[in-house]
Amino acid sequence: MPATLIGLAWLAFFIFRKWKFRKYLAILGFALFIIFTNDFLANWFLKAWQTEAANLESIKNQKFTYGVLLTGMTNTLKEPKDRVYFNQNADRILQAIMLHQQGIIDTLYISGGGATALRKDLQEARVISNYLESIQFPMDKVILEDQSRNTVESARFASAYISSQTEILLITSASHMPRALGCFKKEDFRVQPYPTVFLTNDEMINPSMFLPSDDALLKWNILFKEWMGYSAYWIAGYL
Fold it and tell me: What is the pTM of this model?
């Protein structure tokens, strides 16, 4: 990850005190810091990678039997367990609720496990289901898949519930959509993407975008994760 690369460059600068090219480690660390904290660059690269926002009017005219919502939006390890703790990806569930209320999707299919060897009760799909029930969402219009551990398994397990001949509306983060879309198409699903969680902005260039920013580091972290994930899936033949 970017912060790790910066840290390693500067750490090496202090460790290799007798190396005659030691000064280049300091220069490298500084250059990486400038690049990875530059919000203009982070915003540009993330916008180029993520899937563009769907045309809502066009989707309204289509109607979908299933909206497939991928999890990855809560902290299941936080106590107490009497509520749901959402993270920055909460836009996924908010958009899914809106799509159902507007009649664009009929049934919400929630996919995502995440349980560990020590905690079998941490399936995120069930955590989301509990939240929906608490806000009186019509639970007869919800299907849970709580065994998948990654996007590949989410796509594979979906075939047990949804016919590949049925066009689905896939709901996940815009940065994650290229990988998720590839996985579901690999399983022969007819997929209409509905990206959410846009961390980029469409404003014109302003001076603050060139100042060091932790937001830029966050965007680069997301990009690195998705680039590595997409590459690994492609090499493994999952896409």
Answer: 0.89
